[in-house]
Amino acid sequence: MLDDLALFVAIVEGGSLNAAARREGLPAATVTRRLQRLEKHLGCRLLERSARRMVPTPEGLQYYEQCRPLVHGLGQITRSLDDAMHAMAGSVRVLAPEGLAIGALAPAWASFLENHPGITLQLELSNAVQDLIGSGADLAIRVGRQRDSALTQRRLGTLEIGLVASPGYLSAHPLAAGQPLDQHRVLVAEPLDPTRLPSPEQPLLRLADAVRMRVNNMTLAIQLAESGLGLLLCPLHQCAAALKEGRLVRVSADSQLPSREVFAVWSQRHYLPARVRALVEHLAGFFTSDPRLS
Questions:
Q1: In angstroms, rounded to a whole number, what is the distance separating the alpha carbons of residues 26 and 29?
Q2: Which of 98, 152, 206, 244 lies in disulfide reach of 125, CB 3.0 to 4.6 Å?
């Protein structure tokens, strides 16, 4: 009925059925049929038809004067919402793991803001899996496929992980091929816990009794590993500098470790505004362009 009401306002303002038909892009017969349907629904005649013009009846004029502000107001709201949904401007609130956000993705945030000066990013970093829908955030970056059917997810890329240690630690605690790791010191950086990784073909990862320390910050864990405190399961992008400079080395026992998939996740109940879609596309392109992440 709302569409018919808006069409009635267009007829009155256009002065004829044909003018309204041209304005709305409809056949004249459709306009006539919808006007008749509205009059039938209201139980009164709204327009007096003449050969040249259509003049509102008293009831039609009253109805027009009351409905016109509503129709135009709704149109203005709709246009405003459409502009907001399609504009490359506004704020995008993102939940992301701390280590990934400040490590591999740091250049992606910078390049996105450079490409979209009208958009503001609000990054909330935590290694805990926050409630995306309850938080009201636009987007979340998650490691691992999500099982929540209320979420839409798009795969961005993968993170290669490896078992690393300092040369000093390995010198003091040599590791031969096939040697169980439960005799070694192990550092765990949550949520990347080697004792929880499903790897039936890799018994070297049964390390529950060997854990010396747990921490929820990968940067600190890398520093501790560099100081020689033990073995660390780590995203290789995050310790790339330490590996390149020789402060850490990869342990041969990591050859069968699985990569971790990274996803952009958002609520199925939300239609993504253009600014959020732009960020998802930018992140997908960033992962594709980096061989360590694709």
A1: 8
A2: 98
Q: Say whether 161-254 and 90-157+260-289 share the same fold.
A: yes
| DSSP at 192 | B
Domain 161-254 matching CATH 3.40.190.290: the answer reads: yes
DSSP letter for each residue of 35-52: HHHHHHHHTS--EEE-SS
Say if CB 262 and CB 156 are below 8 A apart: yes
pLDDT in tens, 95-145: 998 888 888 899 999 999 999 999 999 999 987 788 887 788 899 999 888
Q: What is the pTM of this model?
A: 0.64
The amino acid at residue 88 is M
Distance CA 266, CA 276 (A): 10
Q: What share of the chain is helix, strand, coil (3-state, %, to 5)?
A: 45, 20, 35
Helix H or strand E segment including 262: strand 260-267
Domain 90-157+260-289 CATH superfamily? Periplasmic binding protein-like II (3.40.190.10)
Per-residue CA distances from 283 to 208, 259, 275, 277 (Å): 35, 18, 13, 10
Interacting residues of 228 by C-beta distance below 8 A, sequence separation 6+: 165, 166, 168, 169, 172
Query: In the chain, which residue ranges form alpha helices assigned H by DSSP?
Result: 2-14, 17-24, 28-42, 58-86, 98-102, 106-115, 132-135, 167-172, 218-226, 240-244, 274-289
Please report, for the chain, the start and end positions of each structural domain, with discontinuous segments joined by +.
2-86, 90-157+260-289, 161-254
144 dihedral zone (left: phi>0; alpha: psi -120 to 50; beta): left
Q: Give 280-289 pLDDT, tens digit per residue.
A: 999 999 998 8
* Nearest in space to 186 (alpha carbons), one of 254, 117, 264, 276: 254
- Closest by CA to 136, choosing from 148, 147, 122, is 122
